[in-house]
Design goal:
The protein has about 400 residues and is mainly alpha-helical. It has one domain: Growth Hormone, Chain: A, CATH 1.20.1250. It contains 18 helices and no strands. Helix 2 packs across helix 7, helix 4 packs antiparallel against helix 17 and helix 6 runs antiparallel to helix 17.
Length: about 400
């Protein structure tokens, strides 16, 4: 009996469980971007600190480093102990470490809290969709992941608007948004359980681990992770550099930054529902090439944006590009790997995405310091063009193989 047929598709408890998992995944997505509009204020408050231009960005980017490192490890752990316990512990850690910087006046302590927050984010982002997927199969799983993808973009969209507004009144206030984890704790404790097949797989993990590992297509997996790493670098540009772009070009302040980033994520949330329809009509490499094109053109527009209209167009193109990334990458990885390692494979995807996000300040800051923001956007556009060509080459290779 499949999970889809064994699990009621309706019912109060099922809806609460699914919404709780979507919520836990959603709060992991806004933790970095929600405080991004406060970066200029942080830089001013700690102006006497050496390398404050880098450290202010690290307040936003540091959680992604721990996020990235947590993903593969927690995937391995959850295949042995289940999903529920790590999820609940991570939700508690998030609820404490997230708001704490509001009360601190030491930059290094703030960075420490952000690191702890990153650990919680990595667990939530990896295990919430894995747990949700455990309860469904086939078309039901596709719908569940589509809803999860919408939540992962929609919740941050709302919170980023709030972060931009709050940053107008002080750089500390956006940190309080992380307290949104508190109302999710009771339903997580009461309704989130491991699916029966997860329990069975956990018991059998030791006996089958070597056999499953031998069936993993490592070359394809590593190549896809490298492509996802580059895509991850593009994600961090919205919270990291759009606020500075607005200040540099006198387009707007923190609230405009928050609204722009939130609008981008809201569009992403809406478009994510189109993925099942698109996946029936195009191969995954073609979809990947399509969002690489959208991202590339978006960065070109941002490089030359000097007013709100141009900024809006650039952000729209980025939203179009990023809307399919999570669903396409997740389903692609699941399609090429056996079920017994999927939590670890998703953890590897998390590592690739957020390693790219964390690397972005270090790789692009030398360009920004030497030549400004526009050349850094153009460099990312060139990387997206390379990805597009690579994916189209894969499509051509696959077509030749099918043709004999």
């Amino acid at each position: 009996m499949t999970a889809e047929t064994a699990t009621p598709s309706h019912g109060y408890e099922t809806r609460i469980r699914d919404l709780t998992l979507i919520g836990l995944g959603g709060i992991s997505g806004f933790a970095s971007a929600a405080v991004a509009p406060a970066m200029p204020g942080i830089a001013v408050h700690f102006a006497g600190t050496p390398d404050i231009d880098l450290l202010a960005r690290l307040v936003v980017a540091l959680p992604t480093a721990l996020f990235a490192l947590t993903g593969p490890l927690i995937g391995w752990v959850s295949d042995r102990v289940g999903r529920r316990l790590p999820l609940i512990l991570a939700a508690f850690l998030y609820a404490v470490a997230g708001p704490l910087p509001y009360f601190l006046d030491d930059l290094w302590s703030i960075l420490g809290c952000r690191a702890a927050l990153g650990l919680a984010m990595g667990v939530l982002f990896t295990l919430a969709p894995a747990s949700l997927g455990d309860w469904y199969e086939g078309a039901a799983r596709n719908r569940a992941i589509a809803w999860y993808g919408a939540g992962a973009a929609g919740v941050p969209a709302v919170m980023i608007v709030c972060g931009g507004v709050l940053a107008e009144y002080g750089w500390r206030l956006p940190f309080l948004l992380h307290a949104v984890a508190l109302p999710l704790l009771p339903p997580a404790l009461l309704q989130v359980r491991d699916a029966p097949k997860t329990v069975a797989r956990t018991a059998a993990a030791g006996a089958t681990g070597r056999l499953v590992a031998a069936r993993v297509p490592w070359a394809a997996l590593i190549g896809l992770y490298l492509a996802i790493f580059l895509i991850g670098m593009t994600f961090m540009q919205l919270p990291l550099n759009v606020p500075f772009l607005l200040v540099e070009r006198a387009i707007g302040g923190p609230s405009v930054a928050g609204l722009g980033i939130a609008a981008t994520m809201a569009i992403m949330a809406g478009l994510s529902f189109a993925y099942p329809w698109l996946a029936r009509r195009a191969a995954r490499p073609v979809i990947f090439a399509g969002y690489a094109v959208g991202l590339g053109f978006g960065f070109v527009v941002l490089a030359f944006a000097w007013d709100v209209a141009a900024l809006a167009l650039g952000l729209l193109l980025l939203a179009l590009g990023q809307s399919m990334v999570y669903a396409n990458n997740t389903t692609w990885l699941m399609a090429i790997t056996p079920p017994g390692v999927r939590a670890r494979v998703i953890g590897g995807m998390v590592l690739a995405i957020y390693a790219g996000q964390f690397s972005a300040p270090f790789l692009l800051l030398p360009i920004i310091r030497a030549a400004g923001l526009a050349p850094s956007f153009l460099a990312l556009s060139a990387a997206m063009a390379l990805l597009c060509v690579t994916m189209l080459a894969i499509v051509r290779r696959d077509a030749r193989r099918r043709g004999g």
